[in-house]
Please model this.
Amino acid sequence: EVQLVQSGAEVKKPGESLRISCKGSGYSFTSYWISWVRQMPGKGLEWMGRIDPSDSYTNYSPSFQGHVTISADKSISTAYLQWSSLKASDTAMYYCARRGIAARHFDYWGQGTLVTVSS
Amino acid sequence: EIVLTQSPGTLSLSPGERATLSCRASQSVSSSYLAWYQQKPGQAPRLLIYGASSRATGIPDRFSGSGSGTDFTLTISRLEPEDFAVYYCQQYGSSPPATFGPGTKVDIK
Model:
């Protein structure tokens, strides 16, 4: 069974750093790209960026470039999303999602990680 | 950047009725690159339709997708109680590679 299991909810203060994770199982982790998607409270879905776990090649939405870093450790089938300095406006649910290399859609999603940034 | 617009914003219908959701793109989208997702409160999105008209694994045949170019449609032939949710279209393009529409909420009339 394909699963993407994300790390638990986080509560952080502005200026703090954070890394959240997404662990894939039930498939070949390096055969699918992982994207991260933001959903702010009561709002829609925003694509942030993606990584190819086979070579760690990344690309980002211009809206998120420079604000977050996406990485992966293929040895443990895990992708990461990290911030060096959180802002209150980073408060949101973050989802990881899998995309087949030849596909143009996201067929499996993680359960989401809620990040709350508040002083 | 390709911008997706969905209409209506909210669709109020009764179980058993037909739902027709629209997704319009600011420029032409390859049909292969258009997908639909369902999201229920407190849950992650779920893939319904990819390639504009192909149902994802396990999706009931009351869900169907159609369209090409800049106009795409998701149809739910007869609404079941579990179908009341928010629906997003998504396209895969160049920069940024993926964008989502703002969503259509289907709620119970």
Summary: The two ends of chain A are 40 Å apart (CA to CA). Chain A touches chain B through 24 residues (CB under 8 Å).
